[in-house]
Structures are given as structure tokens and as C-alpha cells.
Amino acid sequence: MKKTKIAALVLGMALVFTGCGTKPVDTGAEIWTVQETFSYDEIAKWESMKTPTEGSGSGSVVETNTTDGFVTVQAAEDGWGGVESDYIELDLEKEPMILAQIFENPDGSKWGLKVVPENASEDHQWGLYLVEDNNLKWNKYAGVDVTSVLDEDFQAVYGTKVKVKLWAFAAGGPESTVSISEIKVVNTK
Q1: SS3 category, 121
Q2: What is the pLDDT of residues 115-130, one digit of tens each?
Q3: Are strands 80-84 and 161-171 parallel, antiparallel or unpaired?
Q4: 36-187 homologous superfamily
């Protein structure tokens, strides 16, 4: 079923990415709705990640390119880090997906996405990987089925409606960067 959803995502991606707000998108199989869209200029306003160890992961925005439409995030001195969103609410019963359009990730750099729940337990203060460190680039989309990460064990602790922060980060060294065009939260149910 999840592979079917991902295949439908690829086929319906053009429709999803031209939609705004909570406009329903007909992928042919199901109706999906865009819950949140974080454009590059909105991501540029995100603050440095706040991890349990002060300074670790505190990356920053180093460039906003309005011509090509992306924001560049650079790792912190400890070789990884980035920026975090404000809290957003995810309804896991709606089987959300998070999609990130990566404009560029230089060779030698990696990037990833994590999610940190509000009132995180000690085990979750460093976040849970949505997209593990990788080197996807060239204006491609990365997508993840959020409920595969925030599974039944997670839901037993936090419930099915959960407030989370998104972490978008670069990794691989203090000079590592990732350029992001947008991030979307799409409800598939």
C-alpha cells in the first residue's frame, strides 16, 4: 500500500507542487491535500536547531537566492546542523507525507530531515529521522511517509495528533551545505 502511495506521488507530483494552501489534489487514486508549504523564503526565517547539547547542530542560513528560489543552510562547527521550523500539527490518521525539494547538495556534503515532538521524551530530544543523511540533489524531491517513522510506538506516547518541529540540516563537516527550494506536508488520507 505504501509503495502504491509513493507511485501515485510520482505521477501526481506536478499537481501537488502547483497547489497552494489546502487545495485538494486528485492523484487518480486518492485525494491528497497540501497541509503546509514552506517556501525557501519562509525556511530562511527558521532559527538554528536547538538540540539537548548547546551549540551542537546550531547551523544557519548562509544564502537566500531569489533568482533560482532556494535557501542554503550550513552545518555548525561540529560538522552537522541546520534550522528548525516552528511547531506544526500532524494528524497521523491522515497519513501525512513530508516532501523536500533539494536544489543542491555539494559533493562531500549530506543533508537530512528530522522531526522533534513537543514535550519530547529524553529518547526523542535529538529528533527522529524522516530522511537520513544522504546526497540527493539537482532539484529533486525527497518524500517520506511520516507514519512509517512516527509509528504505533510513537503514537502510544504522543497520540495521533502531534505537534512537531522540522529540522532541515547539512552534515559531513563544518562547511557542509544544503540548498532547499521548499518543504511540503501533504495529507494522503
Answers
A1: coil
A2: 999 999 998 999 999 9
A3: antiparallel
A4: Galactose-binding domain-like (2.60.120.260)
The one-letter code for the residue type at 180 is I
CA atoms within 13 Å, Cβ hemisphere of 113: 27
Number of residues that make up the chain:
189
Q: Which pLDDT value is given to residue 82?
A: 96
Q: Where are the alpha helices (DSSP H) in 27-105?
A: 40-43
Side chain identity at residue 54, one-letter code: E
Grid cell for residue 107? 559533493
Q: 38-91 pLDDT, tens per residue?
A: 999 999 999 999 999 988 889 999 999 999 999 999 999 999 999 999 999 999
What is the pTM (predicted TM-score) of this model?
0.82
Between CA 130 and CA 25 the distance in angstroms is 23
- Assigned C-alpha cell, 108: 562531500
